[in-house]
Each structure stands twice: as structure tokens, then as C-alpha cells.
Amino acid sequence: MTTQLARIVSAVALAGALALARVPAHAQGEASSWSSVTKPEAGPKKKPAASPKEKEKPGKGAQAKSTRTTTEGEKMPEVAPPARKAAGVAAPPAAAKAPAAPGDDAAYEAFDQGRYITALNLALKAAEKGDPQAHTLIGRIYVDGYGTQSNPALGAQWYARGAELGDPEAQFAYGAMLAEGAGIPKDRKLAAQMFEAAALQKHPGANYNLALLFLRGDGKPENPFRAIAHMRYAAENGVVQAQYDLATLYATGTGTDPDAFEAARWMGKAAAAGMPEAQLEYAVLLFRGQGVPVDPAKGAEMFKLAAEKGLAPAQARLARCYMLGAGVEKSPAEAAKWYLVAKEAGVTDADLEKVVASLSRADRTKAQEAAERWREQSELGGWTE
């Protein structure tokens, strides 16, 4: 699994009881998000401690993006944060201050309407009064390039000031930038401090990232027991990739005793949330009866859900289901179709090669055409039967 959003290179390499085929490199769907960092959502949040969305695809989240346009006909000003009132760097307080005055949500309303310059001007006024969340909004405007070219360095200054003022979203966002060195020097120790400050305010994404650092021993001492505690909190509060990783921690007995039932329970939650890698692994558990009753029909359904999302190992597994009639009606034609789709992504299987070879020329051509139609439809944004 890789995530919504830039990576911390992790030395953690647990094989795991849920390991699947190892071809090709990332196609398995078994790669852990322990090498990842959860990053802020694409838009601002009006309230701290809201659960983050489960991630974009992996990438350089905070690197320069194309400008989000504005129709206000003005040039977006570049403004540094207000000077600190006292010398030195203050530690982030336990909780953010309340907004400076009623009506400060006007900045967020303007942002939601695409009036980014207006949003910036309103947020600047609130920031002058010490509103922590206004600092975070301004940081997001500059980092993500709303109405201007992305300016991560300037945005990081605003996030840092918002973090000092105690906004957990600012602490989370600044921590992610520090962890990956996105537009600012990489600093895992300071990133860990930011994540810990936000985690103390019950920020799910910060708890998840803090768990990654404890697993890796990077920015924090390696401590699987602390890691699983933070991972569990994130999982319980809806971070899907934390649910996936928590399942793997239980399966491997990392930071806890091995527990097949808990592993299956959390993998099932991640699968139900729509994570294709979790659907793939949960299907395997259903076929093997590991921590759950054996249920081939549901297992095949999970394989199909992951296969339709483009996960090649799931496509190959689904092909084998059709080849054997496991959880689905036996169908050499469907087996051939899904195998050809998986093969295009680099997965090979000697038994499924024989299935394809056993078809008549006409049926083989139909399977190839069906596979090609699936690929074309998938490229257009999804497949529906």
C-alpha cells in the first residue's frame, strides 16, 4: 500500500502473514503504508481535529502545483506571517486559541467560493488578531497555489506560526512538510514534535504519522508499543490506511501479541472502506479462514472489488476463482479475461496460461477483446458491468 501523499522511507520490513505474490514490485497491494506520510487534505478545515481523507495517490504533495485560478482580477500578494510578540520559539500549546472575532468564517466561505484573494485578505486580518486557524488557511493558500503559484517556503512559515499558536491542522501540515522536506529542509525530529503536538489534540492523521515514526525509529526512538497505540487511535478514528497497517501489526505481533481475529477485523474495516489492497488481503483471509469463517463467495467478491480498481494481483486471483469455480460460477472465459488484464500489468501464472491456451481461437479472441474493453473503460474512469 502506498498513500495519499509523500513518503518517509522506512526500514521496517515485516514480511507479514498476509503476504501475497511478489510480482511486479508494487502491484501486489501488500506494500505497507509505513513508508508513507499522511498529509493534509486539499482544502482548509474550519474546525481542528476533523478526520483527514484517506489520502491521495503517492507523490510530492506539497511540491509546486498548477495555479488554482481566481476570477477576482487581482494579483495574489505574498505576505509573511506577523512578527512574534516575544523572542524565541514557543512550544506549541496544548490547544488552539479560539478565533479572534465572530465572522472569521467569512475567509473560509470566500475560499470555498473560489475567491482566494478575498479569503487571503480576510484571513490576514484575522491572523493579525492572533487567530491560529487563519494562519493555517493562509499557509494552505500559499502551499497549494490557490490563486497564485505554489510557494511552499512561504506557506511553511504560516503553518509554523499557526503551529506555535496551537492549531492542530497547522501542526499536522507543517509536520508533513518537515517529514518529507517539501519546499523546506527535511527535519524528522521537528516533524515528530509537530505530529506529537497535534496528536495530543486528538488529530487522527497526526497519530498515524507519529506511529510511522515510532515504527521506523526516525525522529522518535523506535518503539513498536507506542507505535501501535497511535496506530490504533488513528484506525479507530477512520484513517483507513491506519486500519490496514494495524491489521498487519496484529498479524505479525508487532508491538502486541499476534492476534488473527483482530488482524482480520481491522483488515475487514479497511476493505469495507474501499481500500483495494485491503480488499485483496481480506479476500485471502476469507478463503483461508484466518481470523474469520471461511467464505469463498465473499472472498471472490472482495477480489472482484479490488480487481475492478486495477489491482493486478487481485485480477489474477479473481481469474483463478473463475478457473476453479471458487466462490463464483466456473468460467474459463472470465478466467481468461481477468488473467489477460493482470498479465498486461506484469503478473504471470502458468495455470492461467493453460486456461487461455485451451480456449478455441474464437473464445480466446473474445477474451482478449473483453480484456481490452475493460482496460479502455478503466482508463476512462472506471468499469461497471
Can you walk through the features of this model?
This protein has 385 residues and is mainly α. It has a domain at 295-385. It has 16 helices and no strands. The protein has helices at 106-112, 116-128, 132-144, 152-164, 168-180, 188-200, 204-216, 224-236, 240-252, 260-272, 276-288, 296-308, 312-324, 332-344, 350-358, 361-379. α2 (116-128) runs antiparallel to α3 and α11 (276-288) packs antiparallel against α12 (296-308). 52% of the residues are buried. Mean pLDDT is 81; it is low at 1-36, 46-67 and 86-103.
Strand content: under 5%
- What proportion of the residues is helical, as a percent range? 40-55%
Rg from Cα:
24 Å
Structural class: mainly alpha
* Biggest sheet descriptor: none
Offer a quick outline of the entry.
With 385 residues, the protein is mainly alpha-helical. It has helices spanning 106-112, 116-128, 132-144, 152-164, 168-180, 188-200, 204-216, 224-236, 240-252, 260-272, 276-288, 296-308, 312-324, 332-344, 350-358, 361-379.
Keywords summarizing the entry:
385 residues; mainly alpha; elongated
Any chance you could write out the topology, listing elements then pairs?
Elements: H1 106-112, H2 116-128, H3 132-144, H4 152-164, H5 168-180, H6 188-200, H7 204-216, H8 224-236, H9 240-252, H10 260-272, H11 276-288, H12 296-308, H13 312-324, H14 332-344, H15 350-358, H16 361-379
